[in-house]
């Protein structure tokens, strides 16, 4: 039986989509007990976030997980009001997946939801990478990391490519950043949320660098690569938002190109939704140049991207 959400031995919740599940997602939307047309007023925060989540292509298990987190927080508040013990589980998270799979977008939505639920006082997102944490001399890294955490208090500290903190070995200052993060995750665990993101394999190795890391990330979410169908849907939504459309030939050319990429390119080298965005932005500029040369500006031409307009990343 398919078990997309699994509890690991170390207490982490892992969300995994196998290939069969990914194929079925496009055909059969996942139902949730919290999915309903008319939300009670007290669930307005969930309703607003769900509308934004539904605007995202794919990621069905991630969407379900966010609803489960909402339910857990909400019920805990009800337990507290009833005089029962309320759980104080830390909400630090790890996002694992290739570039362009929506990790930063989801982090922002989580910050917005937790602000509305009074879990976070500000709900803002501070994005960081290795250079923002690692200093040039002993003691510098710890101070830079503390300063970054201070900025994130009341919100989310999102560190992309977090595994790079452990690439330099024992003498690298990245280890100092990891140790500082671990200490503040414990000391100030309910004042901010730390989300570490990166490639799946590298993040698994990263967890071995400090014995306290595993237990401090109770929520681990896998972000699978998009299928060709999903990539085309992402492109279609981007074009509609900009009031453009692909001609029949251009649509076929883009789909064939994506099929070739998914078959021949290393998944780690492919930036998923980011790739589609870059292709479409370049193609829109190419279309503008074509129209300028042709001196053709009727409404149909202004909105149509033709096959010759398409500019792929390696062209």
TrEMBL record:
Protein name according to UniProt: Stage V sporulation protein K
SUPFAM superfamilies the record matches: P-loop containing nucleoside triphosphate hydrolases
One protein family per Pfam: AAA_lid_6
InterPro entries according to UniProt: AAA+_ATPase (IPR003593), AAA_lid_6 (IPR041627), ATPase_AAA_core (IPR003959), CbxX/CfxQ (IPR000641), CbxX/CfxQ_RuBisCO_ESX (IPR050773), P-loop_NTPase (IPR027417), Spore_V_K (IPR014232)
Domain AAA+ ATPase, chain residue ranges per copy: 89-227
Keyword Cytoplasm: no
Source species taxonomy: Bacteria, Bacillati, Bacillota, Bacilli, Bacillales
Sorted UniProt keywords: ATP-binding, Nucleotide-binding
CDD domains assigned: AAA
Molecular function (Gene Ontology), one example: ATP binding
Cell membrane as UniProt keyword: no
Membership in a protein family: Belongs to the CbxX/CfxQ family.
NCBIfam families hit by this protein: spore_V_K (TIGR02881)
């Amino acid at each position: 039986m398919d078990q997309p959400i699994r509890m690991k031995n170390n207490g982490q919740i892992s969300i995994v989509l196998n290939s069969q599940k990914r194929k079925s997602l496009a055909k059969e939307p996942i139902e949730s007990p919290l999915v309903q047309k008319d939300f009670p007023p007290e669930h307005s925060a969930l309703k607003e976030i769900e509308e934004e989540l539904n605007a995202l292509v794919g990621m069905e298990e991630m969407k379900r997980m966010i609803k489960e987190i909402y339910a857990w927080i909400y019920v805990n508040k009800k337990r507290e009001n009833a005089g029962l013990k309320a759980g104080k589980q830390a909400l630090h998270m790890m996002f694992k997946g290739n570039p362009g799979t929506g990790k930063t977008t989801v982090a922002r939505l989580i910050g917005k939801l937790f602000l509305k639920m009074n879990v976070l006082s500000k709900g803002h997102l501070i994005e960081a990478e290795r250079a923002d944490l690692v200093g040039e001399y002993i003691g510098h890294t710890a101070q830079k990391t503390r300063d970054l955490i201070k900025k994130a208090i009341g919100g989310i500290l999102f560190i992309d490519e977090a595994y790079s903190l452990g690439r330099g070995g024992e003498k690298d200052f990245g280890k100092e950043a990891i140790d500082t993060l671990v200490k503040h995750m414990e000391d100030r665990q309910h004042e901010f949320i730390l989300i570490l993101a990166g490639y799946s394999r590298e993040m698994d190795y990263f967890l071995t660098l400090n014995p306290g890391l595993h237990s401090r990330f109770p929520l681990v979410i896998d972000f699978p690569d998009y299928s060709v169908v999903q990539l085309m849907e992402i492109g279609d939504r981007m074009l509609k938002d900009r009031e453009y459309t692909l001609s029949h030939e251009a649509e076929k050319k883009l789909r064939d190109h994506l099929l070739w990429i998914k078959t021949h390119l290393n998944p780690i080298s492919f930036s998923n939704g980011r790739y589609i965005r870059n292709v479409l932005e370049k193609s829109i500029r190419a279309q503008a140049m074509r129209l300028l040369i042709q001196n053709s500006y009727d409404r149909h031409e202004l909105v149509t991207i033709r096959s010759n307009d398409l500019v792929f990343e390696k062209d």
